[in-house]
Amino acid sequence: MNQMLQEPEVKSQTETPQVKSSEAGHAPDTPVRPPAPSHPRFVKPQRVAFVQASWHRDVVEECRIAFLEEIEARHISRSQVDLFEVPGSFEIPLHAQLLAKTRRYTAIVAAGLVVDGGIYRHEFVADTVIKALMDVQLKTEVPVFSAVLTPQQFHESAVHHDFFRKHFVIKGIEVAEACANTLHSLERLKGQVAAGIV
Q1: pLDDT tens digits for the chain (198 residues)?
Q2: Which terminal Cβ of the chain has fewer Cβ within 10 Å, N or C?
Q3: Biased-composition ranges for Polar residues (predicted)?
């Protein structure tokens, strides 16, 4: 898998809407904050396994940290997420398969950064990992989510490390959203199947 990454846009504080003291009883120049989103609660308890590659841990761990914060906002507490670490992304699928077969987890999330060794090698590794994770999902019927990324260009520099750390924060939030939404969808679907609706 080949992923092109672009620098995320950063909004300046001057773009934040301001409220005058005469409006809504706020103090002058108080930023208007949107209300916290309300996420649906689960009918049954959920348990998630988060499998992280240790290669480039300082970058990949940003995904885990952001995931844990976002998934908690979506009513899966940190105590309901078990964390696992493997040497590299290539080792994630087998770990995910063994975890899925335990039937303890309602979802598995994988995170890793595949770089180095030339364009064909790291693309091959990433494609292999993604395909294997899909196979685990289809064989076990436990949803598997991937935040395994393969940038076209990655250099061992402070600039690249900083950029990808920020990018993995975004990916952590996105994978938590996908995980929670899918678990809600599967919960509804299983209820419909049990009721004979579908």
Answers
A1: 334 334 444 444 444 444 444 445 555 566 676 666 788 788 888 999 999 999 888 889 999 999 999 999 999 999 999 999 999 998 999 999 999 999 999 999 999 988 765 544 667 777 889 999 999 999 999 999 999 987 656 556 676 667 778 889 999 999 999 999 999 999 999 888 888 887
A2: C
A3: 1-21
- What is the DSSP annotation of 117-159? S-HHHHHHHHHHHHHHHHHHHHHH---EEEEEE-BS---SSHH
Catalytic one among 57, 103, 121, 188? 121
Structure tokens that stand for 67 in this block: 């995931």
Is domain 44-194 given the CATH code 3.30.450.40 in the classification?
Answer: no
**Rg for the chain, CA atoms, rounded:** 20
Which structure tokens are listed for 136? 């685990």
- Is residue 165 annotated as part of the catalytic site, yes or no? no
